[in-house]
Structure formats: structure tokens, C-alpha cells
């Protein structure tokens, strides 16, 4: 029997099985490209094509299966009971030949060439035949080439083709550059709908609300015959309460305003009436912002400790969203016990300490964060490094008071030295020192006074209240708190100081006791009173005031080893004398600080992940 015909013996079968074990799968890296290239060659040679499009007298042969694979429009055309499914030649209206040519080129090659000259043709064709990857590419191209010269046209394109993301980008851009854009001729090309959208866009603007009113009036005055009919609606979007009465009066007495009064007396009488209803006792300034448009006052949590150790992360709670979000990160090695303050809606993080080879390093460096532009910058370092100190804003300057510094032999020591920072000059200068050493205390400013409460003098919590007069550069003692406090917070509301949180030591046992009351100091009468008791007493909590409510975030319940940290957030309503809660902070957190400032509403942030 020949070898090729003989029966397979068991050994032969094993050999074949071993051969199968050696099999491998071949995958070509170029197959998809080769297929596309082959189809494109067939198209160019007009081979196997089964449909021809006619646009503006030009013919475009193609393969139905290729077009259906990248467009639901073509899939429906060729597979449903439509008359085009049975036609070999189809006439397309409403698009250009150049636009369709670019879309077909993309379908067969995955390549797309966009220029300012062809963008409208390509976008129109891609939108018509629903090749959405090309539509997205056109939107990205317009976004990348957006400027003050073309923003009106891009806004119109975004609205025409329902490009929601591009529309958002355009209106954010215009708002960010509104001061300059409103002086350009293109501003007057805006339609009523676009001006109305601009005023309701809720994006930060680079001009004051006084300027917003003038900008609206200027748009109406450009063509009063057609635009006066929109005056009442547009003016209702102006936030008159944010305009200082002096500035408002100047504008109402201007020649441009009087010109419009003659054309539409009722509209301007209504505006004048609304102005007369504004409160006379307006604040001198509005939180340091030129306008609160597109911004919302939020609770900011800065740094602190969590189960993973110290963190430089900064998060915020936006009341309208009822959620916590990540904001930014302090641009420094992970640190703690720094001072935080807000001036002109910018966050200052100054000083603090960090561990290096089991040694606590204290530093004098400072950083400033602008939430509108999401940018950090450095400021001049303090004259002396310090941590566990207070940082307060007083009359446009920042005061650093007390704390812990390093002595010449690198040992830690408490300090009584104080200094202030001038943001315009970017420089620090010494002011009168505290009457004694102080650390882990609280500070708050009212008018031209700076108050410092409690803290540690050595290892002993104290109850003293000191007041610094910035006009006379001197400290004086005021009536002491009702009990000693360390690691607490002091907040100002109207004409009172409120001290919250903290701890003191029992005289007999020396054990640490968490304070359970919020006490108020009447600045006028120099007296203290207990306001309320905290539902969940804690220390090392982040405390701040927002809209007349004292918020307490996180902290330690006690010194117990287990279950002592918290992410709970409670607030006390000072006007209505009642407690409430909001969404917990997503992590257990302590030794952080809390402040409030305005954050852009349109930030594309991810929520802080749950622990």
C-alpha cells in the first residue's frame, strides 16, 4: 500500500493534532485601507457603480453600498420603498457640486480637506446627506478658526445647522470678548434673536452691567425703526441691581438715552421706574467681578486630608446643580495648614507646610487662582514662612497673622509677626505684631478692623479676641469669647462675628472637647451670645458663609480612633434660625478650608468621584 493511501495510524493522528496546535491567525493591518482604495479606484474608473448623482449639472458615479454604510440618509434612500431605490440617476437639490464631491471623497478615502473657501459647501452637503462625521469635522474647523471678524457668521451657521456645541462655543467667545466686539461694525449685524441669546447665554462677560445696558441701547439706536419693538424684552435682561446708582444716573442722562426716549417714551418710562425701585444702600462694589453673568456663588473646598492622605485638590458645590465638582489643584507639592483668602473673586493660597524625609518644611510662597480663566499665577513670597496662621482680606489687601515658623536651627516656633500683601504692587510689608504668640486661631475682617479669635498660645487654647485697627496700625483686646477655641472658624455676617467649630481642653482631665455652639459677637456692643447648637459638633471642619447661611463641611467628630471623620455638610440659616443639610461631600475630609466665590456656570467639569 502506498504511503499516501494507507490508513492513518494513532501516531499520525497525534502528529496532525500537534500541527493544529501550531496554527495562527493572520490579520492584515492594511486590509481596510486596501478595500477603500480599491473601491475608490473602481469609482474613478466608473466600474461596478450602480448610482449616479447629478448636482449643478455635474455627475458623480458611486456605489450604493459604500454610501449606505456611512450615511443613514443614503441607507434609507437605497433600502426603503423610495423611488430613488429603483433609480440609477438621482438629482440632488439644495447642495453644491463641490460640497458633494468633498463628501464623496471622504466616504471613499476617509480624508477631508477643509478651507475657509469650501467650508460652507462641505457643511451644507454633509448636513443634507447626514454624514455626521463630516459635520462634526466642519464644526471643529469653525471652532478652531473662530475670531471677532467671523463670529457672527459662525453663530449663524451654528444656528442654521443646529450645531449646539459650536453655538455654545461661539456665544461663550463673544461674551468673553463683548467689550471689544460691541465696538465693531459686525455687532450691528446681530439679529434680535442673537442679541437675546447673547443676553441669556449665561457665560462670563468682560464688561460691567453698565456696559451691557449701553450695548443694548446702542443696538436698538442703530435701527430704531425695526428694533424698538424689541426694546422692552432686551432691557428686561439687563441686571439693573448690579449697576451702581451713580453710573445708572449718568447713563439715563446721556444724549443717546434721551434720543431713544423721544422715539419710545413708554419703554424708557418703564426703565426709569425700575431704576427708581432699586435700593439706595447699594454696596460699593460687587464681589470684585465686573459682572456676575455666567457665574454662580459656590462653596469651595480647598485641600485638606482624606483617607489617602493630604491632597491639593480644590472642589466646589454649585447650589443650582446641587452637586460637587472638581475645580482645580494647587500647583505645589501636596501641602497643608496654609492660609486661604478671596480677593476680587480670586483665590489666594499662601504659605503652609509639607513633609520631606519625615521633616515638616514650612514655606512662604503664594499662589493666586482666577476661576474665570481657570489659571494659576504666583505672587511674591511672604517676608516669613508660616503655617497654621490666619489669612484675611481687609480694604483690598491680604493680612497674614501669627502662625508657626522655622527658627534659625530649623526648630518650629510660634510667631506674633504680621504682614500684609498689596496685590497691585505684588509686595509684602510688616504691620504691628500681635500682643503675643498665636497659632491655629481664626481671623475675620469688618470695615477697617481685623479680628483674631482664640487659637493656641503655646499648647493652651485661649478665648481672647483681638482687634487690629488698620488706620492706626495697632492691636487691642476686646471681650473674650464664651469659651476657648482652637482650629475653629470666624465669619462675618452683617455687623456680627460668628465663631464656629473648634475644640478646647478640659481643665481636670486635659482631654480634648469639641465645641457644640455657634457664638455671635456684636461688634457695636462688644458682647457675646450663644446663637445655636450644632447638630453634629466637629472640629477641623471647613466653614464658610453663603447667602446668609453658615456651612460646615467635613471635619472630626471626636478624637476617637474609629469613625471620627465625616463628609457631612450642615448649614445654619442666620435669617430664619434653623438648620438644614445639603449633599454630602463625596469623601471624608478634614483640616481643609472653605471659602466662597463665583465660579463659571458653563465649566465642563467632571463630578468629584465618590470615595
TrEMBL record:
GO terms for biological process: protein ubiquitination. The keyword Repeat applies. Residues 49-116 form the BTB domain. InterPro entries: BACK, BTB-kelch_protein, BTB/POZ_dom, Kelch-typ_b-propeller, Kelch_1, SKP1/BTB/POZ_sf. The keyword Secreted does not apply. GO terms for molecular function: actin binding. Keywords: Kelch repeat, Repeat. Probable substrate-specific adapter of an E3 ubiquitin-protein ligase complex which mediates the ubiquitination and subsequent proteasomal degradation of target proteins. May have a role in synapse differentiation and growth. This is Kelch-like protein diablo. It comes from Darwinula stevensoni.
Amino acid at each position: 500500500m502506498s504511503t499516501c493511501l494507507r490508513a492513518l495510524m494513532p501516531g499520525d493522528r497525534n502528529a496532525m493534532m500537534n500541527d493544529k496546535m501550531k496554527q495562527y491567525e493572520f490579520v492584515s493591518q492594511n486590509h481596510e485601507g486596501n478595500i477603500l482604495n480599491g473601491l475608490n479606484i473602481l469609482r474613478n474608473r466608473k466600474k461596478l457603480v450602480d448610482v449616479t448623482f447629478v448636482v449643478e449639472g455635474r455627475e458623480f458615479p458611486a456605489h450604493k453600498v459604500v454610501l449606505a454604510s456611512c450615511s443613514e440618509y443614503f441607507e434609507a434612500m437605497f433600502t426603503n420603498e423610495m423611488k430613488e431605490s429603483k433609480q440609477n440617476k438621482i438629482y440632488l437639490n439644495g447642495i453644491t457640486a463641490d460640497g458633494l464631491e468633498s463628501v464623496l471623497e471622504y466616504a471613499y478615502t476617509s480624508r477631508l480637506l477643509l478651507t475657509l473657501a469650501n467650508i460652507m459647501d462641505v457643511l451644507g452637503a454633509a448636513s443634507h446627506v447626514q454624514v455626521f462625521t463630516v459635520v462634526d469635522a466642519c464644526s471643529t474647523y469653525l471652532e478652531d478658526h473662530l475670531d471677532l471678524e467671523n463670529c457672527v457668521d459662525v453663530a449663524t451657521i451654528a444656528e442654521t445647522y443646529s450645531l449646539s456645541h459650536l453655538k455654545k462655543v461661539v456665544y461663550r467667545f463673544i461674551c468673553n470678548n463683548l467689550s471689544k466686539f460691541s465696538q465693531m461694525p459686525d455687532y450691528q449685524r446681530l439679529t434680535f434673536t442673537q442679541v437675546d441669546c447673547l443676553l441669556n447665554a449665561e457665560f462670563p462677560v468682560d464688561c460691567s452691567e453698565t456696559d451691557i445696558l449701553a450695548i443694548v441701547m446702542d443696538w436698538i439706536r442703530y435701527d430704531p425703526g425695526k428694533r424698538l419693538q424689541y426694546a422692552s424684552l432686551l432691557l428686561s435682561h439687563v441686571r439693573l441691581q448690579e449697576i451702581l446708582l451713580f453710573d445708572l444716573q449718568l447713563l439715563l442722562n446721556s444724549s443717546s438715552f434721551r434720543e431713544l426716549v423721544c422715539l419710545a417714551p413708554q419703554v424708557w418710562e418703564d426703565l426709569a421706574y425700575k431704576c427708581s425701585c432699586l435700593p439706595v444702600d447699594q454696596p460699593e462694589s460687587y464681589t470684585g467681578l465686573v459682572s456676575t453673568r455666567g457665574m454662580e456663588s459656590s462653596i469651595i473646598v480647598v485641600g485638606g486630608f482624606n483617607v489617602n492622605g493630604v491632597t491639593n485638590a480644590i472642589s466646589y458645590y454649585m447650589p443650582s446643580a446641587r452637586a460637587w465638582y472638581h475645580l482645580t489643584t494647587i500647583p505645589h507639592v501636596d501641602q497643608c495648614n496654609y492660609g486661604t483668602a478671596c480677593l476680587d473673586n480670586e483665590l489666594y493660597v499662601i504659605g503652609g507646610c509639607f513633609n520631606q524625609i519625615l521633616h515638616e518644611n514650612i514655606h512662604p510662597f503664594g499662589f493666586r487662582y482666577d476661576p474665570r480663566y481657570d489659571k494659576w499665577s504666583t505672587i511674591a513670597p511672604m517676608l516669613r514662612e508660616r503655617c497654621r496662621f490666619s489669612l484675611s482680606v481687609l480694604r483690598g489687601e491680604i493680612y497674614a497673622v501669627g502662625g508657626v515658623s522655622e527658627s534659625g536651627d530649623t526648630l518650629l516656633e510660634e510667631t506674633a509677626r504680621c504682614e500684609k500683601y498689596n496685590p497691585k504692587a505684588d509686595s509684602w510689608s510688616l504691620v504691628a505684631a500681635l500682643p503675643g504668640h498665636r497659632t491655629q486661631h481664626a481671623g475675620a475682617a469688618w470695615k477697617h478692623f481685623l479680628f483674631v479669635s482664640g487659637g493656641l498660645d503655646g499648647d493652651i487654647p485661649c478665648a481672647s479676641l483681638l482687634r487690629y485697627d488698620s488706620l492706626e496700625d495697632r492691636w487691642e483686646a476686646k471681650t473674650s469669647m464664651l469659651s476657648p477655641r482652637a482650629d475653629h472658624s470666624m465669619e462675618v455676617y452683617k455687623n456680627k462675628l460668628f465663631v464656629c467649630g473648634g475644640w478646647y481642653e478640659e481643665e481636670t482631665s486635659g482631654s480634648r472637647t469639641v465645641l457644640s455652639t455657634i457664638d455671635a459677637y456684636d461688634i457695636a456692643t462688644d458682647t457675646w451670645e450663644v446663637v445655636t447648637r450644632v447638630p453634629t459638633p466637629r472640629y477641623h471642619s471647613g466653614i464658610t458663609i453663603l447667602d446668609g447661611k453658615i456651612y460646615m463641611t467635613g471635619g472630626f467628630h471626636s478624637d476617637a480612633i474609629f469613625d471620627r471623620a465625616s463628609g457631612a455638610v450642615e448649614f445654619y440659616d442666620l435669617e430664619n434660625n434653623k438648620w438644614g443639610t445639603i449633599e454630602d461631600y463625596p469623601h471624608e475630609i478634614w483640616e481643609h478650608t472653605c471659602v466662597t466665590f463665583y465660579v463659571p456656570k458653563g465649566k465642563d467639569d467632571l463630578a468629584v468621584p465618590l470615595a
